[in-house]
């Protein structure tokens, strides 16, 4: 009579054989990968390596055309004034070119650059009846979407250009060149007007923002204080039959 081995022995032997087969397949796969890497047939990993950070994509500079013309007319006027004597000695022609460039810069910065780059706009008018000069300021309510690079370029050009013309005016006065001082005064007047206008417009915008924040907080506090107090919840009576029985002392 042939004895069969117990089932537990068969199952343990089959499990051991399965584990052995897995180890053999794993070792063969590792050896194959090592051989392919040594022969150069293994494709390199395209993913980011450990500890490496992918560089963030830089956003393109916004409003490039407006930024270009904001600087173009100002720099062109200064360069024409400084180096015009290398090409011509005709003062009238140089004066006309500088005035035209200053006027183009004044119109561009006042009507286009301020509105697009920093969200501000200003103008003034004289009342025909009273003769008073009135300033009008406009600004966008939320300027958080404006690009910070545009702001730096606009305010930098707005403040630096009058300083340059002021230094050139001092140089012309020290050289006793009154004719060239006329060119500098014209350019300084136009750039200074934009500086004063936008400075006042920015102050007005900040005052409006503070006033809006104050009104909002005051309205919220008023609405909170005006709300009626919630009524207290009625006390629920205990159900009958739930009172604990008192033990008699007697």
* Tally of strands: 2
Helix content: 55-70%
Structural class: mainly alpha
How much strand content do the residues show? 5-15%
Q: What is the count of DSSP helices, taking H or I runs of 4+ residues?
A: 5
String of helices and strands? HHHEEHH
Rg over alpha carbons? 41 Å
Which word captures the global form? elongated
Q: Major sheet: order of its strands? A: 1-2
Distance between the ends: 90 Å
Q: Low-confidence segments, ≥5 residues, pLDDT <50?
A: 1-13, 41-45, 246-250
- Mean pLDDT rating: 75
In this structure, how is the largest beta sheet organized? 2 strands, antiparallel
Protein architecture, described:
There is one protein chain. This protein is mainly α and 250 residues long. The chain is built from 5 helices and 2 strands; from the N terminus they run αααββαα. A two-stranded antiparallel ribbon has the order 1-2. The radius of gyration is 41 Å and the shape is elongated. The model is unreliable at 1-13, 41-45 and 246-250 (pLDDT under 50).
